[in-house]
TrEMBL record:
<keyword id="KW-0444">Lipid biosynthesis</keyword>
<dbReference type="InterPro" id="IPR009160">
    <property type="entry name" value="Acyl-CoA_deSatase_haem/ster-bd"/>
</dbReference>
<keyword id="KW-0812">Transmembrane</keyword>
<feature type="transmembrane region" description="Helical">
    <location>
        <begin position="53"/>
        <end position="72"/>
    </location>
</feature>
<feature type="transmembrane region" description="Helical">
    <location>
        <begin position="191"/>
        <end position="212"/>
    </location>
</feature>
<keyword id="KW-0479">Metal-binding</keyword>
<dbReference type="GO" id="GO:0005789">
    <property type="term" value="C:endoplasmic reticulum membrane"/>
</dbReference>
<keyword id="KW-0276">Fatty acid metabolism</keyword>
<protein>
    <recommendedName>
        <fullName>Acyl-CoA desaturase</fullName>
        <ecNumber>1.14.19.1</ecNumber>
    </recommendedName>
</protein>
<comment type="function">
    <text>Stearoyl-CoA desaturase that utilizes O(2) and electrons from reduced cytochrome b5 to introduce the first double bond into saturated fatty acyl-CoA substrates.</text>
</comment>
<dbReference type="InterPro" id="IPR015876">
    <property type="entry name" value="Acyl-CoA_DS"/>
</dbReference>
<keyword id="KW-0472">Membrane</keyword>
<keyword id="KW-1133">Transmembrane helix</keyword>
<dbReference type="InterPro" id="IPR018506">
    <property type="entry name" value="Cyt_B5_heme-BS"/>
</dbReference>
<dbReference type="InterPro" id="IPR001199">
    <property type="entry name" value="Cyt_B5-like_heme/steroid-bd"/>
</dbReference>
<dbReference type="InterPro" id="IPR005804">
    <property type="entry name" value="FA_desaturase_dom"/>
</dbReference>
<keyword id="KW-0560">Oxidoreductase</keyword>
């Protein structure tokens, strides 16, 4: 076969990535710069800036509850129904709207999907599609102008303000194409108005009425009061979970972990973990942490109603914890004073050391000259043990010749260094020249790359090693 001079190019195995010129690299910055927000709210325009439908729901419902509390007797059966239905409708939001549809953290069978869709409608917080669109934008643009419930605008704003007042900007773009194709989501969206009336008020009223003839109690307590509690319970995921607690996985943003938030949000209180690992079906990773939503999903899995429960690899979770632990250690380290830098100490000859020891209590240990004037009278073994080594080499005595000194003794001794003996570092004492407090240091990677052991802080973005 004759040689071929030109080789025909074969099609690439991987197509080149499609570019989106209409989406700038820094989308948030571009939107803030180029899209004009609504005018600020003032005394002259506040009435026109209210979302009247949401305001009515959030004010009329508690008003009905208060009226019922003063005029209707609460019987034991209705009280139990109210609590049970609170958890059912709460799970419709936490296990359904949030963990199933917003984050796809597990797969649910059709019966479970319809149950969660109806229970979520009973919480009266918008349809699945509307709720998830805002929540996905919240995760994508957390703590920015495009976050619909930006915690930086204050507790009240992230709790209810963003619903009562028309948003100054539209939430950032979020892909909900999967929800648009979901038949259960489409069914709920189509029948949503009827579902909220039936599940929010009619069902609890009928159950209490037919069950123990408490029609009024069913409406006022299991209906209105329960709905009021569910509202503010799940609203706390946007407000309290960004305000109360600690940040054990990441401190770049506002989400926090706290057991109180978990108690009032049906288990959504470990929010710092959730924002780091949003597709994990759990909010609480430890067995003793309160997360009934996780337990419900797990129970559904055991019953064959849920599958493919997603969990982040434990190794990656622990990396997040380690990162923050190292950062806290770094902050502690920066507040402490350590032994002076060896390179900054003067080099002193043996003759000079002995000469100066006549007027100063200087002792040589491991090649370093120490001024022990502040410690002579404090030495636990007595002043005479220190005095007899002034002007001499006490290396053997200090490193176990008489007493095996503690880490505290080594650290304190290093603070008394005033010089380095010329040629005085003994063979095999390299490790002992470093005090215990400095053998393990938290250093950022640029410090390591530069060979710099200094504790001078660089920017947080540089990471910690």
């Amino acid at each position: 076969m004759p040689p071929v001079s030109v080789i025909e190019a074969s099609p690439p195995l991987i197509s080149p990535p499609m570019t989106e010129p209409e989406v700038p690299t820094n989308y948030v910055e571009w939107v803030v710069k180029n899209q004009k927000p609504l005018p600020p709210i003032s005394w002259s325009n506040w009435w026109n800036e209210l979302n009247r439908l949401t305001l009515a729901i959030l004010t009329i419902t508690p008003a009905i509850s208060i009226y019922g509390a003063f005029n209707v007797k609460l019987c034991r059966e209705t009280a139990v129904l109210s609590v049970v239905y609170y958890f059912i409708t709460g799970l419709g939001i936490t296990a359904g709207y949030h963990r199933l549809w917003s984050h796809r953290s597990y797969n649910a069978s059709k019966p479970l999907q319809y149950f969660l869709a109806m229970a979520g409608a009973g919480a009266v917080q918008g349809s699945i599609r509307w709720w998830c669109r805002g929540h996905r934008a919240h995760h994508r643009y957390t703590d920015t102008e495009l976050d619909p419930y930006d915690a930086n605008k204050g507790f009240l704003w992230s709790h209810v303000g963003w619903m009562i007042v028309k948003p100054r900007r539209k939430p950032g773009t979020a892909d909900v194409s999967d929800l648009t194709k979901d038949p259960v989501v489409r069914w709920q969206h189509c029948w949503y108005v009827y579902l909220i009336l039936a599940m929010g008020f009619l069902l609890p009223t009928v159950v209490a009425g037919l069950g123990w003839s408490d029609w009024r109690g069913g409406f006022f307590f299991a209906g209105a009061a329960r709905l009021c509690f569910v509202h503010h319970s799940t609203f706390c995921v946007n407000s309290l979970a960004h305000w109360l607690g600690e940040k054990p996985f990441d401190d770049k943003h506002t989400p926090r972990d706290h057991v109180i938030t978990a108690l009032v949000t049906v288990g959504e209180g470990y929010h710092n973990f959730h924002h780091q690992f949003p597709m994990d079906y759990r909010n609480a990773i430890k067995w003793y942490q309160y997360d009934p939503t996780k337990w419900f999903i797990w129970a559904c899995h055991k019953a064959g109603l849920a599958s493919h429960l997603k969990t982040f690899p434990d190794n990656e979770v622990r990396k997040g914890q380690l990162t923050m632990q190292l950062k806290h250690l770094r902050e502690t380290q920066e507040k402490l004073t350590f032994a002076p830098d060896v390179n900054e100490l003067p080099v002193i000859s043996w003759e000079s050391f002995q000469k100066q020891s006549v007027t100063r209590p200087l002792i040589l240990i491991a090649g370093f000259i120490h001024d022990v004037s502040s410690f002579v009278d404090e030495h636990p073994g007595g002043r005479h043990y220190i005095a007899k080594y002034i002007g001499k080499d006490a290396t053997t005595a200090f490193f176990g010749g008489v007493y095996d000194h503690s880490n505290a003794a080594h650290n304190w001794l290093s603070m008394m260094r005033v010089g380095v003996l010329h040629g005085g570092m003994q063979h095999g004492l390299d490790d002992k020249s470093v005090p215990p407090s400095q053998r393990l240091r938290i250093a950022q990677y640029k410090e390591i790359m530069a060979g710099n052991g200094s504790s001078t802080s660089w920017t947080d973005e540089e990471g910690i090693l």
